[in-house]
Each structure stands twice: as C-alpha cells, then as structure tokens.
Write a structure and sequence with these properties.
single chain, alpha/beta, 12 helices, Rossmann fold, two-stranded antiparallel ribbon
Length: 337
C-alpha cells in the first residue's frame, strides 16, 4: 500500500541534502526529553536487558520503541517519539539491545552485557521475550511498536516470521535497511565510510571487551581481522557472524534482512523511508515495497536522509516528520476498548 494518507514531508530548507538531515538530530536534538524509570529483567539465557519506561495512566496503550545501530533509549529519535507518546497519555517502553544501554548519569558510556554475545539486525529473541512480558502485564490493553533503522528491521523481521503473533496491534518503522547486503555495500564509499567508522568506534571496543571477558567469544572472534575493519563487511564477517552462528557476513545479511518476510506481515504497519537515505539504495526500497504484503503501508519521501526527516522554517521551529507521522498513524490503528 502507498502512504497517500500521510502528510507529505517538506524538508527544512536550512538542512539541504541527506547528510545534513541525517546528522542534525544526533548533534542537536535533546537526549533527555522525557522522564524514564529503568527496569532490569533477566533473559532466558541468564543475561540482563535494561528497559526504560515512560509512565502513564493505567489502561492506556503502550508503545514499545526499538533503537537503531549503537543507539539506546537516549537516542534523540527515541526520546522524540517517547515525548509524543507522553503527550497522548500513552505508556511506553524503550528496549535497550544488549550492550547498548547507557549509564543514565553519563549517556556516553554503555553498560556491558553478561553473556558472550551482542545484538544484531536480525536478533529477535529478546524482542519476542519483551513483547510477551509487556503483553502479559498489560493484558487487554493495546500494545504498539515502533522501530528505527536496525530496530525497525528487527521489528519487521519478527512480524513477518510470526504473522499469527497476537501481541502487537500495529507498528511503525523508520528508515529500515530492508536489504542488509545492499545497505552495507551502499556505504562502501568515501562518505559512507565516515558513517561506518563512527559505528565501528564503539562496536570494535565492545567486541574486544567480549574477547577479554569470555574465552568462548575470544575463540569465535577474529580479532586480527577486526583490528583492520573499515567496512560493515569487515566487522560482520569477522565479528557478528562467527559470534552469532552465521557462516559469514553474506549469510548473516541474507538471513537477517526483513526483506525476506515482508510478504508475511499481517498487522497494520507503516514504513517511512527516504529515497536519498545514504544507508540504503533506492532500488532496495522499491524491492521492499514490491514484495511487502498489503498490510504494510509505505510512505516514501524524495528527501529526508536516514532517520532525519527534519522540517520547519528554522532550527527553533524544527519538527520530526517521521516520528509525528508514525505516532499519528498508530493512533488511527489503536484497537477500540
């Protein structure tokens, strides 16, 4: 389905081009827009997940928010959508993927997880566990979900693999890298490698930390190749894949891409993407739209960058079109009762 019911995105003139749109949020937007309280839960494999909750009235809908690569509940887009949920009187939960939770007093520091593994674009066991937990707590109340970038891919992958899940009523996903291989190759340019180097600046220390703390992780990781990693292929082939049981980067990308299962999604989903997203080629967006089920509504804009979508006449009146559109759309799909 197309997103003709979504108001068109009008990019801010003072943020020309995809890179300005992509970078403005991380550099300028607040990372503490709403008050959250933290909960530690134990996973079935003996690790911990950190959930950051937004309080709200009893009986209100709950929104689960999934961050992108190396993000957290302190990511500006997560804080932005939580702020919108708060204005509606919703409750909300931000899931911090393993090794991604930040120290509240120092959001630049992450909290190490307790098992010899990290997280990745196709990992959905933790997501399924948290959804089941929240659904049991909020029995009879609507549960909604929103994912950004990597988090959006994981969300759509889980929805496609579990069309009869019965937990999530509706979902929204922003700037999803539907085809991980196409996305990784799209970043193998001079400009793309600047983005990759930013992510590797924290991914590589996390991998080295695992090797120091867990002998089994040290055996799986190719630390010599990781020390020379400059691309996502380098990191995923020497790190993500062997650590999580994939044959290599190509196998990981193929099995973890939500593109494979978009045709099986059965609940209402809004997918917001831009054609100038530096993290994904336009042709991958067209393939995603062509293979998705009729339950998925695509809202494609010509501009917006990656998880940017900044509108407004000046920095002082800036608005986040994707987050506002996602929440407005979810509002229309909250089950009655």
């Amino acid at each position: 389905m197309d997103g003709s019911s979504i108001p068109p995105f009008r990019p801010a003139r003072w943020l020309p081009g995809p890179h300005a749109q992509t970078l403005w949020g991380p550099l300028v937007r607040p990372r503490r827009a709403v008050p959250l309280f933290r909960e530690r839960i134990e996973t079935p494999d003996g690790d911990e997940l950190l959930l950051d909750h937004l309080d709200g009235p009893a009986g209100a809908p709950r929104l689960l928010v999934l961050h992108g690569l190396e993000g957290s509940s302190f990511s500006p887009y997560v804080q932005g959508i939580l702020s919108l949920a708060s204005r509606l009187g919703w409750r909300a939960t931000a899931l911090n993927f393993r090794s991604c939770a930040r120290v509240p007093e120092s959001p630049g520091r992450w909290i190490e997880n307790g098992r010899p593994r990290l997280y990745h674009s196709g990992e959905t066991e933790d997501l399924a566990y948290v959804l089941s937990l929240l659904a049991a707590r909020d029995a009879g109340r609507p549960l909604l979900a929103a994912g950004f970038s990597l988090g959006g891919n994981a969300l759509l992958k889980w929805l496609g693999e579990n069309p009869d899940q019965g937990l999530v009523a509706a979902a929204a996903a922003v700037s999803v890298p539907f085809d991980l291989a196409a996305g990784a190759r799209n970043l193998e340019t001079a400009t793309g490698r600047l983005y990759v180097s930013h992510f590797l600046s924290t991914l590589l220390p996390k991998a080295r930390s695992l090797a120091r703390r867990f002998p089994e992780a040290k055996e799986r990781l190719d630390l010599r190749r990781l020390s020379r990693a400059r691309t996502f292929f380098d990191f995923d082939d020497a790190g993500t894949a062997p650590l999580h049981g994939f044959a290599g980067a190509e196998d990981y990308w193929e099995r973890s891409s939500s593109l494979r299962v978009l045709g099986s999604i059965s609940i209402p989903v809004l997918a917001l993407s831009s054609e100038d997203d530096p993290f994904l080629p336009r042709e991958a967006l067209e393939r995603a739209r062509g293979t998705a089920s009729s339950a998925v509504t695509f809202a494609l804009s010509r501009r917006g960058g990656h998880a940017g979508f900044v509108s407004g006449s000046s920095p002082f009146t800036a608005r986040a079109w994707a987050e506002e559109s996602a929440v407005a759309w979810l509002c229309r799909h909250v089950p009655p009762g």
